[in-house]
Request: fold
Amino acid sequence: MGKTIYGSDIKQIEQGVVSKKSSPFMRYFKKNYDMYLLLIPTLVFIIIFNIIPMYGITLAFKDYNMFAAETPWKSISASEWVGFKHFKNVFGRSDFKNALANTLIISAYKILFLFPLPIIFAIFLNEVNSIKFQKGLQLIVYLPHFLSWAVVAGIFVALLSSTGVVNMMLAKLGFEKVKFMMDNSVFRKVLVFSEGWKEIGWSSIIYFAAIAGLDQECYEAAHIDGANRFQQIWYITIPGLMPTIILMLILRVGSIMDAGFSQIFAMYNPTVYESADIIGTYVYRMGLGKMDFSMGTAVGLFNSLIGLILVLSSNKLAKKATGKSIW
Amino acid sequence: MATKQKHKISVFTIINVFILSLFGVITLLPVLHVVAKAFSGEGPVVAGLVTFWPKQFQTDTIKYVLKKPEFLSSFKVSLFVTIVGTAIAMFLTVTVAYPLSKPELKGRKFFLYIFVFIMLFNAGMVPNYLLYRSLNLTNTIWALIFPGAFSVFNMLVVKNYFESLPETVEEAARIDGASNMQTLYKVVIPMSLPVLATVTLFYAVGFWNNYMSGVLYITDPSLKPLQQYLYDLINEALETIDATGNIADIDSAMNLTGESVRAATIVVSTVPILLVYPSLQKYFVKGITIGSVKG
Reply:
């Protein structure tokens, strides 16, 4: 594979002759052209399905007329520019403000109540000495992560309907039945709880692995010094987990603009728009439901831009704080 | 795992195991409730008497769901999409992860920037929809396959794993005259089975569980994937809830309530995941921890 060095090569190198053909890139390319062949299928795929759609963003600044050209896509370029009209329009709408507020509130609730639980779970599961118990419990608590939101929505509708077991128990205890899926004052709690039910176990994997990577001698030394379990957790496990916790928290906050689209889309209904309509569901209803394509694109663009800025800055922050990042 | 201390079972352990088990039970109970409803007689379901164990045990509802033509066609669509989609996705992922795992690849940084960018920034629902429509992909099986056929995150997981492999084995193959492609196929892939199994599982579950692509791109009933079929059932239910919070729909075909039919549909559509999931557990824990965070 061109490993042998011929006399003429040496001469060329000695004379410092660098012809166009033997530029470092060309030499590398000749030897490894198949590496670039391997890249081609995926590059073609993402150009079609990820890069080209970005041209459609121009819709946010146009009045879209779907029938301006032969295909809906060609109609984009045929439509008229209108500047920031759609943005001005949408920022004044109360249903948009409601969706934006809900996005932030639901995300904040989820972080506040759900972020600490996987950490606590991983720490206490690690304290169990039986590997069999650990493995068995992990098998159970990872499972809901593999169910679709359509299935989970179905499970919670069954659980929380008026014939569901929760209302049955409330009735037995003498309380009134609660319309969980229709009541604006409880629906967000349903969202937080079902998200926790689905993901707490799965999210604990990363902490569990981080604990397993801690120096075991520390624990032995602490034990000999008479530290009890709680002291070991407090003085060894938690400080050892800190970098992972900080990293995950920063990244979680970075994705605050996604309050759980597939979850809410599967679980919400018109009666709870007030408390659970988020930007993603709003884009769907405006853009595709009411066929207001330009406005849907504008709101979507607003959301992705803020999301992008948040993720980039949080990743930078994470790198600074912990020396780690996700890419 | 942490402490190798051999001591008698302490109060701490008892309380700890109890609370952890409680967490496990809370995870299982909602599932049990749905399974119980699926196998219970009509009367107890409507009266709201079913808890976590079937009352008036019967399998008619399950049989009814399994024989429904809409269910069968959706099941077939999902099966096809999952198998073909996962194969395509693994091809696209591995072929690009290997070159990008080589630090000496010229242009590597540029390619990685593109991939990270498309991971973080998406054109959005509307442009994607218009493109699929213009390419005549709506109401075709490809509208269910392409949206999930490549994940940058999964690619990065595989790439990071490839980077962690010892360089010497690949060097040996190259000295024996193997091309890069042969090295990938004969050396790198066989050494990476745990992470490839993990990513295959992620893609397959992603395809099986995706209901959104169906909602966006499919209106033809014969092309609806199973999860969309289920989503439609639940959505109907949410819209027919009456003022008391009761779901009041009746499936006239068998005089079954929508409630038991839904429960049975949930159960049958989740069984395939339950079948493959336990055997893959040992892979995904290892795979996700090795590949996901870069030091």
